[in-house]
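Changelog-adjacent note: as of this version, every example in the card shows the full chain rather than a window. The one below runs 394 residues end to end.
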Amino acid sequence: MLTPYLPYPLVSGGQIRTYNLLKHLQDKHDITLFSFIRKDDERQYLPELEKFCRQVVVFPRRPAWSLSNILLAGFSAFPFVMISTYLSKTVRQAIAAAINREKYDVIHAEPFYMMPNIPKTHIPILLVEQTIEYLVYQKYADDFSFWPLKLLLYLDVLKLRLWEQYFWRRATRLVAMSGQDRQIMLKATHGHKQIDVVANGVDIDYFNQIRRRRHSPPTILFVGNFKWLPNKDAAVFLAQEIWPLIKFKLPQARLWIVGANPTPEIKRLSKISDVVVEGEITDIRDAFSRADILLAPIRNGRGTKYKVLEAMATGLPVVTTPLGIDGLDVVPGRHALVATTAQDLASATVKLINAQPLGQKIAAAAKHLVTQKYNWSIISSNLDRIYQELGQRQ
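Full-length structure tokens:
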């Protein structure tokens, strides 16, 4: 398994996903994990992952703004985003040595920008896309106002799209997070690839340990790692456009923005009346237990949203956008309130605050849904089936 990050500690959605898959697949497979690390002190987490893996091998990641990375992106077909940062001759040689030394049945790469490090091989390659990256950065480029840099961003997005689709075609088999992502990938590969949907999951037992209670004043929660551009966009949209509409109807309410790596722009949101911005907290369950509603106005980024699954697992009512439930079998109005505009998202939030029985009904239905369909044992079984099929092919 190849990942661009060490799957521990559980700070980002990608780390949560990989960690739980390793945990639930360990009894069925011998797994060698190759991961990049940003800092050498991340090695302290290796024992936690070695519990699930036969071997864990780590490599230092080149800084994104390094001169070599800038030159590589500027004078080659590689985009600055993603591929240049994770392209490593050392990793490629290490993988080549590993597959020459031992027999492997499957190579699991997640996501596509790990693919350039895989040498030519007959071993089946499973490529898992947690999100379609070029669409994320295209939205970022669309919103950029400085035209000289905007043109450079569009060029990089074009490179990113070409490479992402190239590696979809190169992989033996693909996994998407949602049906919508699957359709995009099918179109790009002209229907010639087998593409499965294996959504993200949630640790039901872990999140089932908190007790819900109503708060005074009412607390609206937003959760997200702010290294991820869609989370940054959603938090700003929430605080600047949605929150004033909520405050007009609920003057006593407060907005709590929680997440790792808050940028200066995110921190400045705390200057808005009754908005509290807090960085990473030790136990995310504390945030869910101290809130009345999760409001996730996601406008960009594909893939299943952990914040939505986790909130549902704790029994916290959710208000979100169609993109916030993309990839989930969520029925709007039954498992969550879903809207698109700032006005409608604010109205839905106020409705749930004022109608406690409705919120309880929606939260109960959502909790039942994630328990039955999105616990990690089910998700890992779906992935194990794909491993078995690829292994038989090998």
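Structural remarks: Residues 204-373 form a domain with the Rossmann fold fold (CATH 3.40.50.2000).
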